[in-house]
Structures are given as structure tokens and as C-alpha cells.
Amino acid sequence: MWGYYFNELIHSLPFFLKGLWMTAAVSGLSLIAGTVIGFVLGILRSGGNKWLKTVIGAWVDLVRGTPFLVQVFIVFFILPEAGIQLEAFPAAALALTNMGACFICEIVAGGLSAVPNGQREAACASGLSRIQQLRYIVLPQAMRTILPPLVGQYVLIIKDSSVVSAIGVVDVTRVGWLTVQRIPEGIMVFGLVGILYFTICYPLIQLSIRLEKRMTIVTTRL
Amino acid sequence: MLESFNFRVILAYMPLYLKCFWATVWLSGLSLIGALLIGTLACMMRISRRSLLSRLAGIYIESIRSTPLLAQLYFFYFGLPTLGIRLPEEVTGIVALTLNSGAYMAEIIRAGIQSIHYGQIEAGIAAGLSYLQRLRCIILPQAMGVTIPPLLGQAIVLVKDSALLSLISIMELTRAGQMLTSERFMPAEGFLTTAAFYLLIYYLLKSLSSWSQNRLIYRKSA
Amino acid sequence: MIEFKSVNKWFGDLHVLKDINLAVAKGEVVVVCGPSGSGKSTLIRCINRLEPIQNGELVVDDMAVHDRKTSMTLLRAEIGFVFQSFNLYPHMTALENVTLAPMKVRGMPRGKARQLGLQILERVGLGDRGASYPEQLSGGQQQRVAIARGLCMHPKIMLFDEPTSALDPEMINEVLDVMRDLAGGGMTMIVVTHEMGFAREVANRVVFMDVGQIMETASPEAFFTKPQTRRGKAFLSKILRH
User: Fold this and answer.
1) Total tally of structural domains belonging to chain A
2) Model ipTM?
3) Which of A141, B208, C160, C237 has the most CB atoms within 10 Å of its CB?
4) 8 Å CB contact of A127 and C74
5) Cβ neighbours for A127, distance < 8 A, ≥ 6 positions apart
């Protein structure tokens, strides 16, 4: 029996690879969009405008205080009531981008505030505009602090993408869920799902750890 | 959309929400305790000088960190029955949450312990304290200060993770929202109320974290 | 060139500058000294609006600094500022540090900026260290690069906020030498410092501050030999003992 199921699983591999591609697609899209939006918001968050800071801060609290699954349901089920009808994949990408941008915003704001004030003052005293200060002096130095947790956040986005299977997006997790209805060997099926996620996430986690080590070496030298 | 927000329906469903709120609380609570125990054990194994224990703990922690919680949840939900183990869904949910958070707690505790300068331990050895005495009097009190904020952070994550239990038919907060949506076609009322309850827990835990940080910082400077 | 008229500044409730009246002419070298907390650093930081003032008038090079509407970008390009903690950009070489502002604020082309940068670095005695990063330089060298960074903009005014206070004793002189050189060349300078020898040699005027007020202004010789105020006398006795 076990051997039969194992064979069936091997035959389902193309299905799993398609799911893997879907996971990569929805994660990749959200990762890129989330990074762009997250950087912009993070820069605004650490700027001088108090009103902006409060609004962004409130949005961050909302996203951090509610489960991602609930956010996905809100985007998928509630937006249609406001007139925005979305299919599963766009809704999933929107929710994932929203969450990613929120956390990346915090990471970027944290990195920017870690740059010593004296750097901003020296640039300001030379006559550089605020944008020039950011571009040539503050952001390059902040990137050292931002990069390791940013890569860590990418791993989290990939893992959270599994939640969108709940609204029917056919990613690796959903493929597993569908397969296990036919091949009732939970351990084999989800073992395979786990291995597939592992091959993507583990190298990225190692990269993040290595980046973190390099950053601490550099700062101790400074 | 919000003009026709139906508060009466929410009131009608409030008993269900309160029951589910309580379910979320005790499911998260039990998993938290379990996670702390498993986390401490895994941490001890990871820093042990016996390479077998260290490697086993390492495999456990890396597997959990590189795979999504939902995949782990399905792994147990679909996999345990194939081993002949039939558990109520709630227990399966707690097992998955416990093992998942346990791995992250192990790393948090490890970071806390390793943040203690070795000089402190040497001072303890020189003073003649035994291993357990050093652990109790020098290492753990200082490790607490470093560890409690991220542990509380993990507790917040765990409460949000518990939302996934709704996908294996457990009656908790997110499921309450799904019920309101499927029975009355009111996803806004359903999921926004759910979100509100989660935000309540989030702010409670965040206040607890701030309060404990203030107390610990005071102790440190004193 | 620089004129303070009844200037007042508060940090929250703390009154840090009280009714400041001071005029600095072109080419003058003014040393500002006083105990810590006297407001001397705050005073010069107001000149290029690193700190805003709440009350009074501050006119620099005919521009109203106290007016919020005045754009400081052009004025800051004419003022060089040297910080106590150098504040060199760690991710750039010495040459890149000094050429950034000329290129980005004045729009100088890269080749011309590099030439200028090397010239100025040569002038402060670091012509061969252009490719070094700040972490590879000693404190005294870093501060000289910081001075070069200010000079590359061909400023009308150079401001120094305790330039040697963060340096080991053996490096203080190399920085003071550069500053002496500048003063000799006719630069308008305001220097907050404890280096009394430098003040005696180079300054046209000494301004003594305490508790946010200007207590005395006099020529260096007059101040050091015959301080007029009680606080001035007390301050000098503490300093000169060392």
C-alpha cells in the first residue's frame, strides 16, 4: 500500500512543481512590491512630518496586531463590498504585499534611525538638501543595518504565502492539501511540501545570518 | 459599505465570539506553556557539549524555521492518523503550535544566555559557585532581562498563528468570522469583529511587554 | 558679516541663549570660550541654523537666518562647519568626503572636483591620503580631512565647534597649525575652544560665555591678563591651573 502511494506521489511531482512556481510567483511579486513601498514608507516614517508618522504608525499596528489569515480574508471578502472585486491571486498578492511593506517599513525606519545624527548634521552643514543627505549619506550607511533583517523578512513572506492557500490559490501548500485527499499519506505528502519549502527558505536564512555576522564585524571595526 | 454596518448582527453573534475568544486564549495559552518547555529543552540540547544532542536540536529548529506553520499543521493533521494516532483537532492544533513556537523560543533563550559575558561566569567559578548556583544566581537573572521582551513578542506571534487553527475546523476567533460570513453573508461584520478581538489581545500583550521592560530596566540600573 | 541682535533660544523650558548681541566682521577671528553648559556650542550652531532661534535677529552675510522662510542651502554652502567628533562619512574615502558637496551642491564636474579636493587635502598636509577611509586615519588626520571638507566649498566663514576636544594631546597641534594657517590667510573664523594658547596667538577677540550669556568680550591679551568679571576670573583660574 505504502509503495503504491509513493508511486502516486512521484507521478504528482509535476503538480507540486507547478505549485512551487505559484508560491514563487506570489511571494516574488509581493517581495518586490513590498520592498519598494516599504522603503518609501520607512523613509517617510523617519522623516519630520508628525502627522505622517502617526498615520503610518497606526497602519503598522493594525497589520502587526492581526493574523495574516484574517487580513487575507478581509482583502478577499470585504473589498468586493467596497466595489473592488478581486480574484484569488491578486487578492493574495495584495494582502502579502501589504504585510511585507508594513514590516519592511519598520526595518527601514529602524535602520535609518541607527545612523548617527552627526552624519546628517555634517551633510546638512555642507549645504546638501534633505534628499541629497538621504541618498548619499544616510541611506548607504543604513543599508548595513537593514540588509540582514530584510532578507529575514523575505523568508517570512515566503512562509506566509502558504496562508493564501486558504482562499484557493494553488501554491505548494494547496497542492499538498489537494493531493492528500487522493493519497491519504499525510506524512509523505506534507513531508514533500516541507522539503520544497526548506530548499527555498533554508539558504535564505543562512544568507541572512551571514549578512548579520558581516555587519557586526564592520561595526566593531568602525 | 460602512453605512450599512450591521451592529445588531454582531450583538446577536456575540456569545459565539466570546466563546471563540476564550478558545483562542486557552489554545494559545496552553501552546505557550508547552512552547516554553520545549524551547528550554531544545535550547539546553543545542548548547550542550554532546554533539548528538546539539545536532538533533539543530535539525528540529532548522526544520521548523524553514517551513511554514500551515504546512506543519497539515503535516500533523493529516499525518498523525496514518500512524494510527487519532487526536481531537484541538490537541493537534496545540501540538503544532507548541512545536512551532518552541523552536523560536529555543533560539531566543539561546541568544539570551549567550549574551552574558563569559567574564561573569568566570567570576562565579572563581567564587566557588556550582554550575546550578551560577545558573540560578548569575546567568538566568541577567538572561531574563534580555529574553523576556522577545519572548513576549513570540507570544504575540503565537496568538496570531492560532488563527490558522480555523482551517482545521477548530472553533476559534477566525472561525467565528467565517461563520458570520457563511451564514449571513456579512464578511465585513464577521472579519472586522474578529480583527478587533485580536487587536485587543495584541494591545494587552504589548502593554505587558512595555511594563515588563520598564521594570527590568529599572532593576538593571539599580 | 555675522550679527546677533538680542537673540534668545530655548530647549523646551531651558533658556540656553539669553539676549545675545554679537557682531563679527569679515576677516575677524573670534574665539568663544566658557564652562560647559554655557551655550557656546549652541551659539555657533545657530549661525548655520543647525539649531533654530526663537527670538531676536541673526543676520549672516546679509541673509536673515532667523526668518524661517530663508532657504539655508545657499548660505550653508558659504559656511564651513567643523565638528568636535569630525563626522566624516565612514563609507567614503577622504577624497570622496571632501568632493561630495562641491559636486552635489555646486554642481562641479567630477574631474574638477577631484583636482580641487587633492589640492585642499595637500594644503592640510594629507595630499597622499586621498584614497584612505576615515577608519584608517588617526584622529588628527580625520579632523584635518573634516577641515578640508569645509574648505572645498570656498566658504566665506569657517565655524569650529571644539575641534580639538576629542583628540589625543599629541595630535592637537597638527590641527591647530592648519587653523593658524587659515587665520593668517584672512578667513573669517569663529572657534569654540579651550585652547588658550591658540586664542592668544591668533584671535582678534575673545568672547567669554557663561549660563547662556556673553559675559565679556575683549582682546585676548586683555581677557587673559585682566578679566573684568568674577565668572571670567573663576573660569581662567580653573583653566590655567592645568
Assistant:
1) 1
2) 0.89
3) C160
4) yes
5) C72, C73, C74, C76, C77, C101, C105, C153
